[in-house]
Specification:
The chain is mostly beta strands. The protein is built from no helices and 12 strands.
Length: 117
């Protein structure tokens, strides 16, 4: 498997030549290096937008790693990682966030605590 994986879970992969318009949902981790326009829902799983990935969508997942370009609101139940090559335009709602030096973000960040306080 050439896509980065987390633990023993299988990771679905969308290559850089693939273009998807519409709703994308699933129940496994997803590595996306292509183009998606619409919405992405992976409630209990992770989404990785690779360095060639171009996403214009609202995104909902457990964990989200962005290396490419993402335009739209992000809602992560666990964690968001913006790598140094990330370009994100949209609001982020999450419990934990990591932004590497060099990453671009235009939008607001709303961090929720797990203890409900």
């Amino acid at each position: 498997m050439s896509a980065p994986s987390t633990g023993l879970a299988q990771t679905a992969q969308i290559g850089k030549s693939v273009v998807i318009k519409g709703e994308l949902s699933g129940s496994e981790d997803l590595y996306l290096d292509g183009q998606v326009e619409g919405s992405i829902t992976l409630k209990g799983n992770s989404l990785t937008v690779g360095p060639n990935g171009q996403v214009k969508a609202s995104v909902e997942a457990k964990g989200i790693v962005v290396q490419g370009k993402l335009e739209g609101n992000i809602q992560a139940s666990d964690r968001v990682d913006l790598r140094k090559s990330a370009v994100v335009t949209g609001d982020i709602t999450t419990q934990r966030i990591s932004i590497e030096e060099g990453a671009f973000l235009k939008g607001k960040i709303d961090v929720h605590r797990t203890d409900g306080k």
